[in-house]
Design a protein that fits this description.
5-stranded mixed sheet; single chain; Protocatechuate 3,4-Dioxygenase, subunit A
Length: 191
């Protein structure tokens, strides 16, 4: 019995090490007085590369189902955050990250109403230390004078949802002419 418990503990530690740094740098503390609930945080993971260029279209040269996500970046009062930065990175449709270039990495600058639009391909799942990660998109939201907020977006109907998935981060999808669509508003705290 002790061997089994030690083995399970070692497996959990290995998963945490392999999956990367899973510290939420800015824990989300909801407050009932907030008009808009804050977007829940999620770990950055080990595959972030700083310095992505500004672009709204990712993976244009890659095969995969087209995915468009749009919405607003808001604060806890539901006010738009003008020119917020939506920094995204993801896998290709086969679950591979690109490290040599920024094919599936980019920053989107929201407009003066906090509106953004991301055009990409639907990300693939991948196995990490024997555990299947669901399809997801990593996101860091920032704005002048504010700390960045890190999270991940997931998709409805995925049977591989793991312990990082929060119901509020699961996108509902519509499909038209072979393209999947979803809306998601990021809500971050502003002092």
């Amino acid at each position: 019995m002790k061997k089994k418990t030690v083995g399970m503990a070692a497996s959990v530690i290995l998963v945490a090490v392999v999956l990367g740094t899973f510290v939420w740098p800015n824990p989300v503390i909801q407050n009932p007085s907030f008009a808009c609930a804050l977007t829940e945080g999620n770990p950055q993971g080990p595959y972030y590369i700083p310095g992505a260029p500004y672009k709204e279209k990712l993976g244009e040269s890659l095969e995969g189902q087209k995915l468009i996500i749009s919405g607003q970046v808001l604060n806890q009062h539901c006010d738009p955050i003008p020119e917020a930065i939506v920094d995204v990175w993801q896998t290709d449709s086969n679950g591979n990250y690109y490290f040599e270039d920024f094919t599936l990495r980019g920053k989107i600058k929201a407009d003066k109403y906090g509106q953004y639009k991301l055009e990409t391909i639907f990300p693939g799942k991948y196995s990490e230390a024997g555990f299947m990660r669901p399809a997801h998109i990593h996101v860091k939201i920032s704005a002048p004078g504010l700390l960045s907020h890190t999270t991940q977006l997931y998709f409805e109907g995925d049977e591989h949802h793991d312990f990082f998935v929060k119901p509020s981060l699961i996108l509902k999808l519509d499909e038209k002419d072979g393209t999947r669509y979803s809306d998601f508003d990021f809500v971050i705290f502003t002092p």
